[in-house]
Amino acid sequence: MKISRFIIFALLAGYLVWVVYPMAWVAYSSLKTDEAIFREAFALPPLDALQTDNYTRAWNEARFGDYFINSVLVTLTSVALIVMLGAMAAYALARFYHPLGKGVFWLFLAGLMVPVQLSIVPLFFELRALGLLNSRTGLILVYTANGLPFAIFILAGFFKSLPRSLYEAAVVDGCSEASAFWRVMLPLAKPGLVTVAIFQFIGIWKEYFFAFMFTSGDAGASVRTLPLGLANLSITSQYRSDYGMLFAGLVIVTVPILIVFIALQKHLVKGVTAGALKG
């Protein structure tokens, strides 16, 4: 028994080092010069020679400040719409009977099976016809539509698992359908809401393909997000490898994801566990 525990502990420790060390290496390499990165790749930077200007240059010269604001606006708005609309649709499909209810539910799930590459051409022409190319609004609509199937799939299971007696008690106490949903049923689905929000935040924050396709040329430069900003670093550095600034950009992109995950990891574990037990 002790040997098996030691083996499991050793495997988990090895996996931890394998996952965490590359991120730590990028973080402290972002405080070094290119020469130091190549000369002593794995050495920590000396405290009296920290290259904090890598972050300044990435934020200003590479326009990471603008890209960061765009990513925040697009991601938070998209996540809020996905959670709100997904919760309402999932509740309606899970709680009320309608002859077409199952068909609509499976239609939403079909969205999970369609590769995003197949939707690029029709989405491009649709956004162009609506005048939403090279705009935050266009990206938000695309991300919301792309995230709804996953949200409905997760949240419908949560609403189905909630006791119907709670809904009936709310109605008996005088709640309308809308009031029962917002004041009783929705708070009980909090683990599912947080789970959906975390997964969608991470996915949208680091999304590149849609942002690249729908914010092209000089017209889309002002609404580009952080993943596109990383690709823009090679142009900003005049096609030479400025690894210090590149690593600084990677840290800027990664830190918000780590903060959100660490802050909400307890809710994420509860949500996944509840979904597994109730499924």
Automatic annotation (TrEMBL):
What GO biological process term is on the record, naming one?
Answer: transmembrane transport
ABC transmembrane type-1 domain: residues covered: 68-264
Against Pfam families, the record matches this protein to: BPD_transp_1
The secretion signal range is none
Give the record's GO CC terms. plasma membrane
* Record-annotated membrane-spanning stretches: 7-28, 67-93, 105-125, 137-159, 180-202, 243-264
Task: Tell me where in or outside the cell this protein is found.
Answer: Cell membrane
Keywords annotated in UniProt? Cell membrane, Membrane, Transmembrane, Transmembrane helix, Transport
The topology of this chain with respect to the membrane is: Multi-pass membrane protein
| This protein's record includes keyword Transmembrane helix | yes
Please give the InterPro entries that the UniProt record associates with this protein: MetI-like, MetI-like_sf
Matching entries from Gene3D superfamilies are given as:
MetI-like
Q: Does the keyword Cell membrane apply?
A: yes
PANTHER family in alphabetical order = ABC TRANSPORTER PERMEASE PROTEIN MG189-RELATED-RELATED, SN-GLYCEROL-3-PHOSPHATE TRANSPORT SYSTEM PERMEASE PROTEIN UGPE
Instruction: State the family it belongs to.
Output: Belongs to the binding-protein-dependent transport system permease family.
The name this protein goes by in its record: sn-glycerol-3-phosphate transport system permease protein UgpE
